[in-house]
């Protein structure tokens, strides 16, 4: 049977195998990129030989690279670069330069030329943005300290790959005088960038605005792709690379208000063509070569994994992170990246790699990428071991002016948005607190503002001892790393069995393990978000506020009640559940002129006539539990009362008039 268009048969084979591989990848919980590489190995000429039109496949792969860089430019706004300037431009630059210096330049001692040595350093310096961000995102570790190290380095690498590709002809010596070539390339780049950015300020917003006003999705998509390919063609005509033009096109559009719409339209095309790119890379690998040179391939793979981990860890230390956190960041960056394949292809065209060297590179790169998900999956256990084994001095910088007489204080582990809010509330309420944070930039910035913040790992005994955890009342854990949360809870509970531990976590499924480790209260973002959602919906439908509050109390009593450790036996819970859900504790501040001001507890008749029980009163930073009947209320007192929630809401006027602050607690 003859096929008029051979590429169609190859496309059917590639997409059919890719679909099967994606299904298998999901079942095995490995990134689909690895599956695409394996698809290429199987379908390629060195294995089953199922694909014949390899040149056409490479053309599709080139389109995939263009779209991949275009999307990276779209997602990488200039504002984001400015916000992450230190992790990107200090940590990322340190990682790339150290890797080039250590894994590339020493090859000169083995009679490898300077240009080729630098080029090999370029290949080794890049990591897989697609794999690392996907795996860290799925495991909710992007906001963790090691995730921040990895993210900063990956962003810098994505930017650095463009000048690396521009330097390949210079490194190959194909441009004659290298300094003249660099100058010419710089002038070309400046001219093209100037034309493009001037056009971006004037032309692109006008064009996209006119297209948007037509309300035609098809026209917008075609215009977006047209701009991408047109700018790529412009840079190519100027003697630069197509990839550089695509990246600049994305960066230009990222500054417009239409970038999200453009990204949404281009993503499906990027996914399809990028998949073909990874398949085409797999087709180049010769399994017979790997089998013949297996010891060398394994040795090079182990060397690459170890060297890249340690060099990226050094970049983490330069940023000021503890050693064990830096090593975890290094583990996330230990693979060879997808842009190394692009760079290697350009280098092959300029004779910077021989056919055998290219096969070694492909084998090492594919194996390191395949191992990455499993290495990142082991980060929690590796982190725990490193935290115990490494010297405490590596993870604690004790400030000389740290408060050593802390007692009855609040410890806040983590200073993101949740930590900020908690510290602000504690400061306004006169509660003594101390903050532990692992981001050195945050520590420096907040200490300059006067916050009692220390740089340290809250999972380490010495760090907790330094802030008198044995005398603390409450530990609030508001960090984003699930594994670190568990270690902090276990360590703090061991150090202070009476400590009240409150934890914020992402998912409901994480509540029970944390309770078993020793936390008293675990707040799941997933659960609280669902509660807030139905509050907004019911409010929009003008459901009475009292009914909404009753629904909230019932849901919290039923939902969290099922998730917490049972404190009563089943029969007691069944008998008391409905009664207890209607009661609560509230803190009310006595304002000047309030009914209770100047009256004693017995004179106010709070329990006898109003149904409220006073369990404690806070005054001048001290707490009086179960005050006696002769206790005189004063303005500014914070009175803890217990009773029915609805009754407390009605009787709050006795203390605060129309204003107050409350919490649903008991």
Plain-language structure description:
The structure is a single chain. With 666 residues, this protein is an alpha/beta fold. The chain folds into three domains: 56-383, Na+/H+ antiporter like fold (Up-down Bundle), CATH 1.20.1530.20; 392-505, NAD(P)-binding Rossmann-like Domain (Rossmann fold), CATH 3.40.50.720; 582-666, 2-Layer Sandwich (Alpha-Beta Plaits). Helix content is 64%, strand content 8%. It has 30 helices and eleven strands. The strands form two sheets. The protein has a seven-stranded mixed beta sheet, sandwiched between helices. A four-stranded antiparallel beta sheet has the order 8-11-9-10. A hairpin with a 2-residue loop joins β9 and β10 (622-625). α2 (32-43) packs parallel to α12 (259-284), α15 (323-332) packs antiparallel against α18 and α16 packs antiparallel against α17. The longest helix is centred in the first third of the chain and has 36 residues, at 178-213. The protein is elongated, with a radius of gyration of 31 Å. Its main location: membrane. Residues 407-524 form the RCK N-terminal domain. It is found in: Membrane. Residues 571-659 form the RCK C-terminal domain. Keywords: Ion transport, Membrane, Potassium, Potassium transport, Transmembrane, Transmembrane helix, Transport.
What are the key terms here?
3 domains; alpha/beta; single chain; Alpha-Beta Plaits; 666 residues; elongated; seven-stranded mixed beta sheet; 8% strand; four-stranded antiparallel beta sheet; Na+/H+ antiporter like fold; 64% helix; 30 helices; Rossmann fold; disordered C terminus
């Amino acid at each position: 049977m003859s096929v008029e268009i051979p590429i169609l048969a190859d496309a059917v084979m590639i997409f059919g195998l890719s679909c099967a591989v994606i299904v298998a990848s999901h079942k095995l919980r490995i990134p689909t990129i690895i599956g695409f590489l394996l698809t290429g190995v199987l379908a390629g000429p060195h294995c089953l030989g199922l694909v014949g039109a390899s040149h056409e496949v490479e053309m599709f792969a080139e389109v995939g690279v263009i779209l991949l860089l275009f999307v990276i430019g779209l997602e990488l706004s200039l504002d984001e670069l400015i916000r992450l300037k230190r992790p990107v431009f200090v940590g990322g630059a340190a990682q790339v330069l150290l890797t080039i210096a250590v894994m590339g330049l020493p090859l000169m001692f083995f009679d490898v030329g300077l240009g080729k040595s630098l080029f090999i350093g370029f290949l080794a310096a890049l990591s897989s943005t697609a794999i690392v961000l996907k795996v860290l995102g799925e495991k909710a570790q992007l906001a963790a300290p090691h995730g921040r190290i990895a993210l900063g380095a990956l962003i810098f690498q994505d930017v650095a790959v463009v000048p690396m590709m521009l330097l390949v002809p210079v490194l190959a010596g194909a441009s004659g005088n290298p300094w003249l070539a660099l100058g010419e390339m710089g002038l070309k780049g400046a001219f093209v960038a100037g034309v493009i950015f001037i056009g971006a300020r004037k032309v692109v917003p006008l064009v996209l605005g006119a297209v948007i006003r037509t309300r035609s999705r098809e026209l917008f998509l075609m215009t977006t792709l047209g701009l991408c390919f047109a700018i790529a063609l412009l840079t190519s005509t100027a003697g630069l690379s197509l990839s550089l033009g695509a990246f600049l096109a994305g960066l230009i559009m990222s500054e417009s208000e239409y970038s999200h719409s453009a990204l949404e339209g281009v993503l499906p095309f990027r996914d399809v063509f990028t998949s073909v790119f990874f398949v085409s890379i797999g087709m180049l690998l010769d399994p017979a070569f790997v089998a013949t040179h297996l010891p060398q391939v394994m040795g090079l793979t182990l060397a690459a994994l170890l060297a890249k981990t340690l060099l990226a860890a050094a970049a983490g230390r330069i940023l000021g992170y503890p050693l064990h956190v830096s090593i975890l960041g290094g583990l996330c960056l230990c693979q060879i990246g997808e842009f190394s394949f692009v760079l290697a292809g350009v280098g092959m065209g300029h004779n910077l790699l021989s056919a055998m060297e290219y096969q070694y590179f492909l084998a090492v790169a594919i194996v390191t990428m395949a191992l990455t998900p499993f290495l990142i999956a082991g980060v929690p256990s590796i982190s725990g071991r490193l935290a115990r084994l490494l010297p405490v001095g590596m993870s604690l910088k004790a400030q000389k002016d740290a408060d050593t007489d802390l007692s009855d204080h609040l410890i806040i582990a983590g200073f993101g948005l949740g930590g900020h809010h908690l510290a602000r509330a504690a400061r306004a309420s006169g509660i003594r607190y101390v903050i532990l944070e692992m981001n050195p930039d945050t520590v420096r910035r907040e200490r300059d503002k006067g916050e009692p913040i220390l740089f340290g790992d809250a999972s380490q005994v010495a760090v907790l001892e330094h802030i008198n955890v044995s005398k603390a009342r409450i530990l609030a854990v508001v960090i984003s790393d699930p594994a670190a949360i568990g270690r902090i809870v276990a360590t703090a509970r061991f150090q202070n069995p009476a400590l009240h531990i409150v934890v914020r976590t992402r998912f409901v499924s994480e509540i029970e393990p944390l309770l078993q480790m020793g936390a008293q209260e675990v707040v799941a973002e997933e659960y609280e978000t669902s509660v807030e959602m139905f509050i907004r919906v019911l409010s929009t439908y003008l459901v009475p506020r009292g009914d909404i509050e009753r629904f909230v109390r019932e849901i919290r009593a039923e939902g969290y009640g099922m998730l917490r450790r049972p404190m009563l036996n089943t029969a007691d819970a069944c008998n008391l559940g409905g009664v207890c859900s209607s009661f609560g504790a509230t803190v009310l501040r006595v304002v000047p002129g309030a009914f209770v001001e100047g009256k004693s507890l017995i004179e106010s008749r709070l329990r006898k006539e109003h149904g409220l029980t006073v369990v404690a009163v806070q005054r001048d930073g001290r707490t009086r539990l179960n005050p006696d009947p002769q206790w005189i209320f004063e303005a500014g007192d914070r009175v803890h009362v217990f009773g029915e929630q609805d009754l407390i809401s009605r009787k709050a006027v006795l203390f605060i008039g129309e204003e107050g602050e409350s919490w649903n607690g008991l």
